[in-house]
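ugh ok fine here u go
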Amino acid sequence: MMTSINRRESMKSYIMASSLLPEKLWRAAFLINEDERIEAEEFRLRLGRPFSIVVRGQQKDIYSGGKAVTVTADDIEAVITSATDHSYHSWEEQISRGFITAKGGFRIGLCGHIGMGERGRVLRDITSVNIRVSRQIVGVGEQLAQRLMKNGFKDTLIISPPGVGKTTLLRDMCRVLSYHYRLSVADCRCEIGGSLMGENAFDLGKSDVMCGGNKSHVINMLIRSMSPEIIALDEITEAADIAAIEEGSYTGCAFLATAHGVSLENMSCRPLYRRLFDTGVFENAVLLERVGGERICRIFERSFENGQACWRGDDNYILLGDRPVVKP
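structure:
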């Protein structure tokens, strides 16, 4: 059960995310009930299709007056204009990578036509927009963090499919761990902290936060300047990220990171992540998944049998923000 404080903060995040929408879609966003707004995860805009909201992993088309609220080209343009503060060209490089991070840490995914412009690859004729409702749920990572600290924190990789809540979990774990360790955050897309200052900033406790840049550069900067015991980062996606983590691990710094995947077996079959496992940096893996509308996770520890590395899973699943449970 979400606390009244977390319900209030979740509603605040929903209101902030919906403010990126044009008036027609903003009004439509408030046609769903309060509980759905609190648990909403994404706003989905597809040109010529119904405006939809993802709640508990399910897409819900929005109707007004018995008719679907249909997304137009003007609606999509209005979202991009709002997110870029009327300065599209200043954001062109980020847009070319398929996303924008708006104030408050709201990641806006984009789809359209990839072409070449004067300054390289550009994304034009945008036909789909996905606004993720970034929110803070204080306490969601408390029990997991305490379990990982029990015998001293060791390098940990959080694994889950997209949209299950890796960043929300990582955000709260940064808050908890920062009161026990010198923790720095490589927040390269400015999503974990939301913003460095002001009302849009998430509570990361005593963390030292570096926004922008690329992960490999930021990791090196943090190690040199902040002497962290733990560095947290979201979504390992490139070989350069892995190289920086491996090099950083030689300094004695531990890492808390996330990656997309559905299982350890799935991860080890993909060349990029097989290399990540082969480095031997991560001693713990946390598998995060959604079961019956709830988010649960399980801790795996790396061990060795007959000279080969293997992963042993804890028998207890953790219901995030609550108590240990047995998986149904």
